[in-house]
Automatic annotation (TrEMBL):
This is Family 4 glycosyl hydrolase. It comes from Caldanaerobius fijiensis DSM 17918. The lineage of its organism: Bacteria, Bacillati, Bacillota, Clostridia, Thermoanaerobacterales. The keyword NAD applies. One of its GO terms (molecular function) is hydrolase activity, hydrolyzing O-glycosyl compounds. The keyword Hydrolase applies.
Length: 121
């Protein structure tokens, strides 16, 4: 199975995906194809992922590239961190949740925030 991760150079998104794939879900014999416009960051995330896999005895292939087409070739699943108008939409969600006294989480979206993000895509 090949999973392509677009925007994997993000210091928030990248490590979270790596941790979930390698530690939480132990995706043995899988390929994570990391892609980002920043070569230095995507290569760094690939190195981090390889180290996490090695330390947790998970047999996973991790590649990195700046070429989206290359990373997408043969992908079974694609995960994207791209957020159109990200902060603007996050602030809109924040105001609605605050208005109704609902808990506001910071970081990865969960609950109502996640639903809002999914429906907006």
């Amino acid at each position: 199975m090949k999973i392509t991760v677009i925007g994997a150079g993000s210091f928030v998104f990248g490590p979270t995906v790596l941790k979930d794939a390698i530690i939480k879900n132990r995706l043995d014999d899988c390929e994570l194809a990391l892609v980002d416009i920043n070569k230095e960051l995507v290569d760094l995330m690939a190195s981090v992922g390889k180290r996490i896999a090695r330390e947790n005895n998970v047999s996973i292939k991790i590649t990195s590239t700046t070429r989206r087409e290359e990373a997408l070739e043969g992908a079974d699943f694609v995960i994207s961190s791209a957020a159109i108008q990200g902060i603007k939409r996050w602030l809109m969600d924040y105001e609605v949740l605050k208005k109704y006294g609902l808990m506001i989480r910071h970081g990865n979206a969960e609950g109502l925030e996640a639903l809002s993000i999914l429906l907006g895509q």
